[in-house]
Amino acid sequence: MKAGQSVIVREIECKSVLTKSGIESVDYALNPYVGCAHGCVYCYASFMKRFTGHKEEWGAFVDVKVNAAEVLARQMKRAKRGNIVSSTVTDPYQPLEERYGITRACLEALTDYDFPISILTKSDLVLRDLDILPRLRDTEVGFTITTLDEEARRVFEPRSSPVSARLAALAELAEAGIKTWAFCGPLLPFLSDGEEQMDALFEDLARVGVSYIIVDSMKLSGAIWGKVRRVLERRYPDLVEGYRYVAANRRPYHEALMATAQRLAEKHGLTWRV
Predict the structure, then answer these.
(1) Average pLDDT of the chain?
(2) Half-sphere exposure of residue 13: CA atoms within 13 angstroms, side-chain side
(3) At a CB cut-off of 8 Å and minimum separation 6, what does 260 contact?
């Protein structure tokens, strides 16, 4: 094992990297890493820890699938055509990708196939691969953006790219002819879910030319609520009770948020997807 920037890094070999997805409308998931060093407090993928053998907290370790591209090339020879999402339980362009290039090698392996590919990231490192992306026959790149507030971003997504860098990357990708989109989720209760904050966010997303947006609310349950609560107690203590209310009343909160999001998306001419 190697230690760096407080993240434990382990190089592993995988037997499979292209997996059937349990997400509606997604055929395959492609996850070049196990774990993610971005350290997002609300990360829903933290449930994956139980399958890793790690004792460290989610966000404190990353397993690098060093043979992922080789395995992917073998799997693609017999895979039935379907759409691929990279990634569903990790970020394909987290900081270690700059050093290992696993995602880049996987994209190279996919250039020979006519599979729709959707990339979702919080890192402008994706711009490094602008030489490969146009060679993929049907691809799109999405950025998760939960807030325009840089202080909140540092609190909830501590090792991800700044929001300004993500917006700039979306603009550059769109200018290069790459279809782009944004995942605005989870919006942060009382920090980025207000009408004024959403209006500003959607205005920026329209400006950088995204093809569509997906919006989601924060799901505060189990271990995720515990992690979020501890951060709130330290950084936003006045919001703890508000978040507790959202946790107990997510359905009406979610429905109201979606109604506002749809109205504001239409205002800015954005295609809105559930």
Answers:
(1) 93
(2) 4
(3) 195, 198
234 burial (CB, 10 Å; 0-12 / 13-18 / 19+) is: exposed
Q: Which domain holds residue 215?
A: 138-274
Cβ–Cβ < 8 Å for 144, 156: no
CB 169 within 8 A of CB 120: no
Whole-model pTM: value is 0.93
For residue 166, the domain's CATH number is 3.80.30.30
User: Structural domain tally of the chain?
Assistant: 1
Strands 18-20 and 272-273, bridge-based pairing: unpaired
What is the C-alpha to C-alpha distance for residues 19 and 9, in angstroms, rounded to an integer? Answer: 23
Question: Nearest-CA neighbor of 187 among 135, 152, 223?
Answer: 152
Please report the pLDDT score of residue 59 as a whole number.
Answer: 74
